[in-house]
Amino acid sequence: MHESKESEFSLYDLFVPLTLKKVIIFLITIGVVVFFNAFFNGFVWDDIGYILLNNELHRFNLLHLFGLKEFTSGGYFRPISAIYFSLFYNLFGSHAFFYHFFQISLHITNACLVYIFFSKFFKNTTAFLLAVLFLIHPIQTEAVVYIGDSQSELLFLFGITALLISLKEKFATKDFVITAILLLLALLTKETGILFVLFITLFQYLVKKRKELTFVLYSLLVIGSYLFIRLVLVKSFFEKNLTSPIGNVSLGERLLNLPNVFFYYLKTFFYPVTLGIDQRWTVTAIDLQHFYFPLFLDLVFLLAIGVVGFILYKNKKQTFLFFVFFAVWFLVSIGMLLQIFPLDMTVSERWFYIPMVGMLGIIGYAIQLISFSNKNIFRYFSITVGMIVVILSVRTMVRTTNWVDTITLYSHDIRVDDNYDLEDNLGTEYAYAGRYKEALPYLQKGVKMAPHSTNIYNLASAYYQLGYYTQAEYYYMLTLKQDDEPDLKRQMTRNAYNGLAQVYVLHKDPKEANVFMTEVLKRYPTSGTFWAYLAITDYKLGNQEKALNEAKKAREILHNSSTEKLYQLILKKKPLDLHQ
User: Fold this and answer.
1) Residue 431's domain spans which residues?
2) Does 459 lie in the same domain as 324?
């Protein structure tokens, strides 16, 4: 009996009092356990092109990185993200473990800061629960294990730190300066950093009732500095080239999607069973399933927020404005995801990283309305919350296993939203792995669903690798006929001509191939590769002297082992060893 009491005392003492030190230890432990699998995952999805194959990112130079097109064009301006990834690549290369380690560490740090933030409004136990939910919720998984989205954690770190500083009762000049710098860093990390500028200003004037214009002036200074760097110094403008279906329809058509998009985030938060990346679905008609039903549930949720606010206003007026602050936080940040302004995808779980705090704040005040004077109510509530945390943690742990590699991720998520992009991406990954027979059905389906130059070219390449040269030629030709934005058009046209050159030179009559390569060189007269192909056709036709001159030109333009070997073989009149 004595040992039982001692055991109970130790467990109680573990949590009470719930100090900041204990909270940090608990959050670190929980975070490491829940995301442990992710430490050993590889680079997936856009990580490959975004980081590993982005040669410009591999040179660490601050001025260069502020103008790096991958991060500062197409409507994006994220130089701090470019610096972050460039620094990591130069330190750790292609070792994914270190990227995951620091990204998960950032997320755990953010959860600790979220606890400190919530502890300003709620009891320590409530703040701790909300911080745990922020840490382990399955909707966070994409933002935490997708290396390419490390910018979400980085942006949030800058923003929440600035917000915490702004909560101080006495605000010195140095606090304004530090806050302004942090907000500018948030904006330069990702455009949604503007939300923290709004939140800080809103809190000061709505909750703190500060009438002076200091915070407005500092906010304008931050935004002005950002615009000066972006528009004047770097000349990165706000145009955006979207390839997603929802990004290419009118505002009216996008508004049809608003109820279902809003409902998607609510459903995924409260019932995170179905999780998937790269969702490109659209609602094209007003019907029960995709419009009226989600609209009804959206309104029920908004009504629930209103009811909680009304009860707080009637009974706890001192907390009402805090509740309004979190409600505005949630509604404004989720409003940016509702396709009023078109986005790259229809929905994305990683975009919920900032709205999550507003949602948790609303839930925190809803919990405060529950009376825990009855011990049974407290006991049942504690058991229920514990079960929810365990279930959510297990769901997150399972979800991290889907991210182990790209083929595993695509194979799983294609069942959530089967779209042309996932079909093409999965097919391309199989092709990269040399599994062309497995790649072909996915590439064919992707082209059938939404043909464009990239997936048509990928299908042509797969046909070529499988030895179906007639089909390869057809799809290479079809690639040339696609309309694209200028940079992509130039790239895909060059790729398609290169593919056609292989078909003609290696698998067609030399005379036909010679005529074809002569025409191609009129378009690309400085291509060493195409001069080499022309040399091969002339050598096959017995034009040794002409072939030698063409091989010499190829070697001068593109001096490598292949062009050197070709030149020497033709010079010595030896047979060419042409591999398919």
Assistant:
1) 413-571
2) no
Nearest-CA neighbor of 140 among 101, 187, 183, 104? 104
Q: Which of 84-93, 140-149, 200-209, 280-289 has the lowest mean pLDDT?
A: 200-209
Per-residue pLDDT of 421-436, as tens digits, reads 999 999 999 998 999 9
pLDDT tens, residue by residue, 173-193: 888 889 999 999 999 999 999
Lookup: tokens for 70: 């991958």
**Residues with Cβ within 8 Å of residue 310, at least 6 apart in sequence:** none
477 lies in the same domain as 552: yes
pTM: 0.89
Letter for the amino acid at 383? Answer: I
- CATH code (residue 566): 1.25.40.10
Same domain, 450 and 338: no
The tokens describing 476, both together, are: 């290479």
Radius of gyration of the chain (CA): 29
Q: How far apart are the two ends of the chain, measured CA to CA in Å?
A: 80
Q: Show Cβ contacts of residue 279 under 8 Å, excluding neighbours closer than 6 positions.
A: 345, 346, 347, 348, 416, 417, 419
Q: Which long-range contacts (CB under 8 A, 24 or more apart) does 443-447 make?
A: 445/420, 446/420, 446/421, 447/420, 447/475
